Amino acid sequence: MNKTEKLPGGVTAAAGFQAGTASAGIKYKLKRDIALIYSTVPAVAAGVFTTNRVKAAPVLVSMRRIAGGKAQAIVVNSGNANACNGEQGERDALTMAAAAAGALGIPEELVLVASTGVIGQKMPMDKVLPGILEAAGCMSSEGGAMAAEAIMTTDTVPKEAALQIYLGGKVVTVGGMAKGSGMIHPNMATLLCFITTDAAISSTCLSRALKYAVSNSFNLITVDRDTSTNDMAVILANGLAGNPEIVREDDDYLLFRDALTDVCTRLAIDLVRDGEGATKLIQVEVRNALTLEDARLAARAVAGSNLVKAAIFGRDANWGRVLCAAGYSGANFEPEKVDIFLGEEQVARNGCSLEFSEERAMNILDKDTVRIVLDFKMGDCSATAWGCDLTYDYVRINGDYRT
Q1: Rounded to a whole number, what is the distance in angstroms from the first to the last CA of the chain?
Q2: For residue 37, which of 109, 129, 100 has the smallest C-alpha distance?
Q3: 149-166 tens-digit pLDDT
Q4: The whole model's pTM is what?
Q5: What is the C-alpha separation between 36 and 173, in angstroms, rounded?
Q6: Position 210 pLDDT exceeds 70
Q7: Which residues, 6+ apart, have CB-to-CB distance to 355 below 8 Å?
């Protein structure tokens, strides 16, 4: 049976995973700001991390540890990024891992660390460490929803996704949670994402599947063209589903990879829909490009164009901005062949103006989701990227982010 079934829940949906949270007082408001994710058995682990040259201490620690291909827990805080804090920042990240390991009774090297929040502020370890102990004291398989809430910063809603597939006659679950609302851009878009699965899979196959999933989800979203210091997407696979271990790129691998990509895509779209100040989700489809890379380059450029984003906010069917963004994207195409659509309304043909209904176009731009389609008429490759509109509230939120 190859049926895929979506489930409620997120990071604790798979067998053997628990989460605990605490309100440690790291954030200005007393909300949950510490989360612990834990597998009852050691798990195979893989991760993808920020491409920013400035990397936060938790990223550096987790990159080193995940290179071993194993992990059992992740300790996460929100409200402070622990970035640009020098040697003290790394000591604090290691201390967080050690505290979580001690509380959970597992080896320290099997604990990964993640942080999100304000850059360049010292970690309030007098609050963080008691918070870790508190979170460890309330671990539960029902704790996933509260964990998704605890990792939020400017997010307005938590992001969770889960589904089940059948591998080797066994039910396998993939679940995850993510946070991110601003500083979101391709090349490991700014976010924290934690995925868990009870699938049995080798480290090599898990890493390959995660990279594929990220390339087709998180690296195709943008909010504001900023890539952060703290990005990471981490997956733990504990094997408790009992399926035959996936060790090669066979049919079971492809089923798992596609399920993982489904979870990541759902989370990615939720991140963009909740972009800082956003009122609309923008879906950009590039069709019939010469290569997949051409399609992706153009789709990402259009989704990330401030002029396009502002036009969508203002309900202005300014299709010239769409073609302009594709033109500077680096994609190989012939402008005089391009057709452009807003939803079902064609607004340009062969790269030139076209009589269209401004009223119908405005009605399309009134919707919560606005679909832009570019047909390159060059090949058979397509790609979709997601963005959001640029609003007055984005400036307000980021103008007083620290205060």
Answers
A1: 53
A2: 100
A3: 999 987 888 999 999 999
A4: 0.88
A5: 20
A6: yes
A7: none
